[in-house]
Amino acid sequence: DTEVTQTPKHLVMGMTNKKSLKCEQHMGHRAMYWYKQKAKKPPELMFVYSYEKLSINESVPSRFSPECPNSSLLNLHLHALQPEDSALYLCASSQPRRGNTEAFFGQGTRLTVV
Amino acid sequence: AQSVTQLDSQVPVFEEAPVELRCNYSSSVSVYLFWYVQYPNQGLQLLLKYLSGSTLVKGINGFEAEFNKSQTSFHLRKPSVHISDTAEYFCAVSGNTGFQKLVFGTGTRLLVSP
Predict the structure, then answer these.
(1) d(Cα A10, Cα A13) in Å, to the nearest integer?
(2) How confident is the model at residue A114 (pLDDT cuts 50, 70, 90)?
(3) Beta-carbon separation of A107 and B46 below 8 A
């Protein structure tokens, strides 16, 4: 199983809503990532978890709150978002080691903030 | 810090013609290089990667790339393209750490027409 599964595929939320994006992998990977991709732009790294601990936060606003409850799951909690946060949110996973490793990406959640 | 430059934002080509998508990188340390493909409304799929060893790397779907350290390039090639190769192609670099902290280029849209 080389899949990273993200739910939901599409999400529309108001600026006062609270919602969560979910990501799951069963490849035994111990590093998981959130990337944000605006339309016609490359993905940009938001967060990295390694062994369920937050290792990298790329200065992401606090209205985005990541959570890694176990080695297979990664959540992104959303609160008080702005319309400019509308984007494709991609989850990825990999083995946290040097050398022969690659990141596997999910299909993404298309988020629209209204 | 690493960076990637993809000079061509769009490359139009006829079906069964050869294609080369250009990628140049900048880094002060040894790097790992990747090419990803993204079909419309999809996540990212790894085409190929260069970690070390042979500078000619073969990937999926008939793509290959050559790592050229002196020219800091990692161009992607395919001898004969298909309509189904129409997609966005991202070159990416990561450093020699335990994470897949990928830095992406701006992407090249490959447009294959009959």
Answers:
(1) 10
(2) very high
(3) no
